[in-house]
Write a structure and sequence with these properties.
single chain, 18 helices
Length: 404
């Protein structure tokens, strides 16, 4: 066993797989292509751009911010599933500065996106009483605070993780736990307020106490699905393939199932609370999303994002099979985008279903650039934390399962 660990601590373990560079180039090309498609479409229709941008932005932010939250959760629980996913989570969290810059188009499009930032809002008493909170300077100040906290958290954790690549440092374990514990509290608080600012305030006459928790569960779900897909890509590379045994995919599959159920629980709870209250001001949010063409969309979403993944992930064999589990991860990622589209788009096209070229081109352009930066960061550190105390146990588990 000691020979296996020493082998992973050699210089070869520090070399990133060459295939990651190819992934980065392809993602960059895809981002550029869909940017050109978006620019061409802008010549004919600009109305849809900002709502589509918000959907794509929130999807990419979920991958970045959800990965930061899962990374902190892993440091608190010390699970071996975190050993194989740590570099993926760190690379995804490292894209948060890009997401801060990518927030600028949302700031530019505020009058288009947010009714409370329009002149007509001054004559709406239901909006004006919220003016102390919903005003542009305070909105921007809060966004700066959110990003400052998120970027600082990912920087601290990645900086200490880099020190562990140089030498054993048991004294850092307490630092990881302390920052992660405080960080998870800050994450839930800041994401709750960010979801209110950036999404719930699209409908300033409506409010929900469950809205922030929906985003917390949705980001965790997206992050685990993304990690599983990337782990499949890396399963045949060294050194990560050395410990990516079926038991590790089984661990990730169980966590994915947990967040599928958590998202469904929060979604149903919000619907039940608002529907049972039967208040016109609150129930209009759902009425706009379950009537007309959106009704079939809503039913399909409930089946595709909860019922189907839940039934499939109950299978132990599926959770231990990297290929089928990654396929389920891709399915869930697509459903996360569909869910965000269902949350945001009906506010801009009430009463009828609308799908524009921007609905695909803008999110795919953002995702392409996001993935290019993600693979860039994934190439920088070794794919395994060579001096992590859990490494010996992870290697032993893999060798026992693979019959080594």
């Amino acid at each position: 066993m000691s020979n296996g660990i020493k082998e992973l601590q050699t210089a070869a373990a520090w070399q990133p797989p060459a295939i990651l560079g190819g992934y980065a180039r392809r993602a960059l090309l895809a981002g550029g292509f869909f940017t050109l498609v978006t620019l061409a479409a802008l010549l004919f229709d600009r109305h849809q751009f900002f709502s589509s941008y918000l959907v794509g932005y929130l999807f990419c932010l979920a991958l970045s911010l959800g990965s930061l939250a899962v990374l902190m959760m892993q440091y608190l629980t010390s699970g071996k599933w975190g050993l194989v996913s740590r570099r993926v989570l760190e690379a995804a969290a490292a894209t948060l500065p890009l997401m801060a810059v990518a927030f600028i188009p949302i700031v530019i499009g505020m009058p288009t996106l947010y009714p409370w930032d329009r002149a007509a809002a001054r004559s709406d008493a239901n909006i004006m009483w919220k003016h102390g909170y919903l005003n542009v300077p305070f909105f921007l100040m809060r966004a700066v605070v959110y990003f400052a906290i998120w970027i600082w958290l990912q920087y601290r954790l990645r900086r200490w993780s880099a020190l562990l690549d140089e030498r054993p440092a048991p004294e850092l374990e307490e630092h990881f736990e302390n920052v992660s514990g405080i960080g998870l509290v800050l994450y839930v608080l800041t994401l709750t307020f960010a979801s209110i600012d950036w999404v719930e305030s699209l409908y300033p006459h409506w409010s929900s106490t469950m809205f922030g928790f929906l985003f917390v569960a949705g980001q965790g779900l997206a992050s685990f699905a993304f990690v599983i897909v990337i782990c499949l890509l890396l399963a045949r590379t060294s050194p990560l393939g050395r410990i990516l045994a079926p038991v590790r995919f089984h661990d990730l599959g169980k966590l994915l199932l947990t967040f599928v159920m958590l998202w469904a629980y929060f979604s149903f709870s919000q619907l039940l609370i608002l529907w049972s209250g039967d208040l016109p001001r609150e129930i209009t949010y759902y009425l706009a999303r379950i009537h007309g063409a959106w009704k079939a969309f809503c039913i399909a979403l409930a089946l595709a994002q909860f019922a189907f993944p839940f039934a499939m992930l109950l299978s132990k064999n599926l959770k231990r099979a990297a290929g089928p589990l990654a396929a389920m991860g891709i399915w869930i990622l697509v459903m996360r985008w569909v869910d965000l589209y269902w949350v945001i788009q009906p506010g801009f096209s009430p009463g009828h279903f609308q799908f524009h070229v921007f609905s695909l081109s803008v999110p795919l352009a953002l995702l392409g650039f996001w993935l290019a930066l993600f693979f860039f960061y994934l190439r920088r550190p070794p794919l395994l934390p060579a001096f992590d105390p859990l490494l010996a146990e992870a290697i032993e588990d893999a060798e026992m399962e693979m019959g080594a």
